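CHAIN AND CONFORMATION:
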Amino acid sequence: MLRINRTAVTVAIGIVFTVIIAGSFAVGLIGLLQTAHVQADLLAEQLAPAIVRQDRRAASEMLVTLRHSPQVQAADLRDAQHRPFARYVRAGAAGPATDPGLAPFLLHVRQDFGNTGGRVGTLYLSVSLDSVLRQTAWLAIITLIAAAASLWVSGLLFGHLDRAVLAPLQALNDLMGRVHGASDFTIRARASHIAEIDALGRNFNEMIEKIHDRDQRLAQLAYFDKLTGLPNRPAFLDRLERELSRASRGGHRLGLLFLDLDGFKQVNDTLGHEAGDRLLVEAAARLRATLRPSDAAAPVSPRARSDATGPAKEAHPARLGGDEFTVLLPDLRDVGDVLVVARRIGDSLRRPFAIEGRDVAISASIGAAVFPEDGRDAATLLMHADAAMYHAKRAGRDNSCLYRTTLARSAPAQAGLDPPPGDSRAELDIGA
């Protein structure tokens, strides 16, 4: 844009320069021609009597008076038969007035004159263009200096324009490229002293904030349960895969709890779905309070995902759907720790809930599985925790059970699940 503006200004100055010089030359030439015609007309009136009397001497003396007109280089007087009658040539002048080809820088004027009897003669004047050319040359020099000064001033103005206007616009364009390329919504445009650019920067910042808020809302809808605010099934599976990968690299144990609320269906049937939703919200709040998850435990969208490399010892709850919840327990020191957390959760959920002015009592059946002892992939680990939960429910509810891959196959069979390959039986450690 700056180059285009500079080129346009240069072309415009060049056009103005050409027009001024050409116009000046044309005006000077027209003025010189008019002066020459007036001078030739006046002189012809004085020469007419001399030609009539055939007084060549008088005619020559009259032509010599042209020496007082510096622009007149030569004069040639002809009679009625176009025969030479008198001539004047300024010292140093080239060629006769009747031969324009010999003097290309002379203006040639012809003036016929006569009396009542008809044409008496013809006067030719050769007028020099030096005065017009000098005037045009001086004007060209002055105009050229003015054009150079204009280009210099315009260069300063364009430099200021570049720093004050174009540079902020380019910076804003670079910010947009960074936002688009890196999806970095923390970028903000700086304030500008130019009102229009400052308004553009504010609009850019507002747009980025709206896009960021929209992505946050989309991530919330995609990865969080709308009712309880806990991570949903896709977010849980994503977190489980990443925690399994981290635990495998670091050689850590990973615990998985699978919770099902006992008595939730009766609450829905007796008090209605709104009361059931309220109960789920309160249960999720107790689960959070019991586990004290950090903000970093919440799954985020794939765009903002980063695989943690350091220890992550906070528990991560999630809602799979209905009255089913899960909890991830990274970096277990001992397999038995998973049941300690499960019992603490059970104690928390066992306390009555105040729903619509009534105390509602429920409990939780909790199944537990541990990586790598109870499974080395997400599907196996989740299946075994689910099987342990079903066994806890069949054992009288309000229980927590730990799946053990080395023992009897009764729990997978009862839950309608196939045992892991190579297992002849499965065992569940039951804790009240």
Notes: The CA atoms of residues 88 and 428 lie 138 Å apart. The first strand starts at residue 72 and ends at 79.
